Amino acid sequence: MKCKSVHNKLIFFLEKELPVSEMEQVQKHLDECSECARFTAEMKNTLQILDNDKVNDENPFFYTRVKERIAKQAEEQPAVRPVLVRILQPVAFSILLLLGVYGGFKLGQAPKANIAGSGFTEQEVIPYWNELEAEPIEAFLMK
Amino acid sequence: MSDTDIIDQLKQGSEAAFKTLVDTHQKLVVNTCYGLVQNREDAEDIAQDVFVEVYRNIDKFRADAKLSTWLYRIAVNRSLNHIRDNKKRKWFHSFEDEVAAKNREVMQVSTSNTDEPEYELENQQRAIILREAINSLPQNQKVAFTLSKYEELSYQEIAEVMDLSVSSVESLLFRAKKGLQKKLYKCYKKKCL
Questions:
Q1: C-alpha–C-alpha distance, residues B173 and B178, integer Å
Q2: Contact criterion met (CB below 8 Å) for B193 and A46
Q3: Residue-wise pLDDT tens for chain A (143 aa)?
Q4: Is the confidence at residue B92, as pLDDT, over 70?
Q5: Residues B76, B71: Cα–Cα separation, whole Å
């Protein structure tokens, strides 16, 4: 049996869930391979933690705390909200949401202004923004 | 007093029956919650909520069902909700908080009274690695593994709690163990074990 195959079966070996023949094969490999034996020991120690990692002691005040919680919740229980509020509130929010979505679509579909038709093309507008293009530096120095 | 008697008396509003129910099933519920949330205080907190829910909904309990199965289900659901809420909260927590919490966990043991502090510290580190590995399992595998390891339930009992077939539970446990093995091996290779 190869190391990789042993690693794949190790947890089942430690839990004694393998068939007898495989248990023997894994054990034989572990007797021969020190690296696998070391990992097995480490894994066994780690999994053993689960056995000790349980809550074994009982909290003597547990019942009192449960009762306190029940009493507290009974006090805090809010008065039943009127049906109209319970229904109207979500309906109002839904309508607002739908209106928002509808408004968004409408804004997106709004007719675009005809920029070209207004008489200013990109070429005409740019010189006013870009002084270098309107008056090259050479022409400026010549002055 | 049998479970049926407890339930009957509780339905009639008996406080004594409720105390008996809490006392007899406290460990079962706390352990299940602890297995899933991996924190004693949180586990007790959730367990208290489980009993509050039982108290409030005792009328909905079907007479043919098993009380422990019902308790396990509530405990599992509440614990999973707690984990989910915690995950959301963690988005707003800084990494430093996480590291500080982990260090506190380790220091708790290293400062405890023990004859072999080094061994204890090593064990605590192993426990943290194991918890991380269990926590990284998919939810269903984690529940099945916890019920099997912390409560030592049979496949049949786990199937009843999780409302699955026995073969599904077998498969979940097989995959959970494989996953754990893989994670522990990776950790061993990186010398963190």
A1: 8
A2: yes
A3: 788 888 888 999 998 989 999 999 999 999 999 988 998 998 898 888 888 788 778 888 999 999 999 998 888 766 666 777 778 888 999 999 999 999 998 888 877 655 555 555 555 555 556 666 666 777 777 76
A4: no
A5: 8
Number of domains present in the structure of chain A: 1
Q: Which residue has the tokens 């918890």?
A: B131
Q: How many CA atoms lie within 13 A of A99 on its CB side?
A: 6
Q: Which domain, by its residues, includes A43? A: 3-52
pLDDT above 80: residue B108:
no
* CATH numeric code, B136-193: 1.10.10.10
Which residues of chain A have a CB within 8 Å of the CB of B130? Answer: 46-47, 49-50
> Who has greater pLDDT, A49 or B162?
B162
Between positions 61 and 100 of B, the ones with CB within 8 A of A are none
Residue A97 lies in a domain: no
One-letter-per-residue 3-state SS of B91-123: CCCCHHHHHHHHHHHHHHHHCCCCCCHHHHHHH
Q: Please check whether residue B93 is in contact with residue B32, taking contact to mean a CB–CB distance below 8 angstroms.
A: no
Structure confidence at residue B6 (pLDDT): 87
How many angstroms away from the CA of A92 is the closest CA of chain B?
A: 28
What is the domain partition of chain B in residue ranges?
1-92, 136-193
Which fold, B1-92?
Rna Polymerase Sigma Factor; Chain: A (1.10.1740)
Structure ipTM: 0.76
Tell me if A53 sits within 8 A of B127, measured CB to CB.
yes
Q: Do A59 and B123 touch (CB under 8 A)?
A: no
Res. B112: pLDDT tops 80: no
B156-165: long-range contacts (C-beta < 8 A, 24 or more apart)?
B157/B69, B160/B66, B160/B69, B161/B69, B161/B72, B161/B73, B161/B76, B162/B76
Sign of the Cα pseudo-torsion (B166, B172, B175, B176, in order) = negative
